[in-house]
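User: Predict the structure for this protein chain, please.
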Amino acid sequence: MTQIKTTSDTNWTGPQAFALAAVCLLLGVSGGWLARRSLMTPTPASVASPAAPAADFGQPASPEFGSSPMAPSPQQLQQAAGSQAARLLEQLKADPNNPSLLTQLGNISYDAKQYPAAIDYYQRVLKLRPADTSVRTDMGTAYWYTGNADAAIEQFNKALSYEPTKPDTLFNLGIVKSQGKKDAEGAIAAWQKLLASNPNYENKETVLQLIAQAKSH
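Assistant: Here is the predicted structure, written as structure tokens:
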């Protein structure tokens, strides 16, 4: 697994820049193409193994490339992602503490499933903007996909200290407590708070099913 860079490392070498651009080019992803802030909405029968937490809880399904006449082609997406990464890395050389650039590179790394690199970028953002609950939730989710449930929960709780009713954070906290820690009571509490504070939550029925499943166990 890729080593996490230190947060003070802002001097990009040619191979580092090429590696990130190549990953984006091969996968045809760009920052924001996949939703990061909420783990995939599970079905009640979908239970992930603690040894492989990401097996059943990946990113929410994204539109299939070329699924409609108006959708960009895979080649267009690959070209856009590769050029975007190269452009952002070049800008970061001149402005290494730009939170927007760091966030975008973290998102690209996350979408490419390079979670340690994404965590590094998000950490650097949070040194500059510790109250950014979206980035902190993304970082917690990235920790979950590396198998570190405790670090994920820590970041979700920190995000909630700034924004106590953030729906995606509460949803993810429930998932990780349920699947990663086998803490049904804690998961139920997070999901109940989610529904109480966000009565029109788009995945309300799924959350109700998850609560019922957790209570049955």
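Residues 155-217 form one domain.
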